Amino acid sequence: MQFFLTHHHAKSNVFEISGGEAFHIAKVLRKKPGDVLRLFDGKGKVLWGKIERIASERVTGRIVVEGPDIEPLPFDIHVYQALPKGAKWDWVLEKGCELGVRRFVPLMTSRTVVQIARSEVSKKMARWRSVLQAAAKQSGSTRLPEIEEPKTFQEAIGLISRVESRESKVALFAWESETVSPVWKVLDRFDNLPETVSVFIGPEGGW
């Protein structure tokens, strides 16, 4: 099991873990000073840290081994998903994180049943980040995906042009009735793999 670093002070080699992760280490796993934890920074780096001080709200110690950066996928995958009902969105985040998705953008389209009020966005974002962190922790993924605030379809199209500024990119629209062109076959058509692959997944019943 690995734990997400809240802070890593590179010069002093001191690490800090706070919040729910600290509580889990101290009260559930009952770790003690001197125990070594596998840590990740969400950007591809794995480290091992020895606990020096531990409490339910804060765990601190020093890095004893710094592992090599884990190589990412040969291209970034960005998932633009129309928000589904129930717990399906949590499942998308969890499995996408395990598969190496780099960015998630939740969509609210004209046919999306789930609509999130502006006053609820902050709370939703905190929960989604928590889901991604837990998925990375359990799966051993060393990169924590980015997640955007909910966007309309038009805003999402603009985001591709504005944020995904790499020269080599491709946008794909998933269609539930497609039977002959899975993503990997589409990518095989390129002489060189694009740097960014954006996959749009619409709501039930189409866009």
Record the SSE blueprint.
Layout: E1 2-4, E2 7-9, E3 14-18, H1 20-28, E4 36-40, E5 46-54, E6 58-66, E7 76-82, H2 88-99, E8 103-107, H3 121-139, E9 146-147, H4 153-162, E10 169-173, H5 183-187, E11 196-201
Parallel strand pairs: 1-4, 7-8, 7-11, 8-9, 10-11
Antiparallel strand pairs: 2-3, 3-6, 4-5, 5-6
Helix pairs in contact: 2-3
Percentage of helical residues? 25-40%
Radius of gyration: 19 Å
Order of helices and strands: EEEHEEEEHEHEHEHE
Question: How many β-strands, per DSSP?
Answer: 11
Distance between the termini: 40 Å
Structural class: alpha/beta
User: In order across it, which strands form the biggest sheet?
Assistant: 1-4-5-6-3-2
Tally the helices: what do you get?
A: 5
Beta-strand content = 25-35%
Task: Give a description of the structure.
This protein has 207 residues and is of the alpha/beta class. The chain is 27% helix and 29% strand. The chain has 5 helices and 11 strands; from the N terminus they run βββαββββαβαβαβαβ. It has helices spanning 20-28, 88-99, 121-139, 153-162, 183-187, and strands at residues 2-4, 7-9, 14-18, 36-40, 46-54, 58-66, 76-82, 103-107, 146-147, 169-173, 196-201. The strands form 2 sheets. It has a 6-stranded mixed β-sheet with strand order 1-4-5-6-3-2. The longest helix has 19 residues, at 121-139. The protein is globular, with a radius of gyration of 19 Å. The N and C termini lie far apart (40 Å). The mean pLDDT is 87.
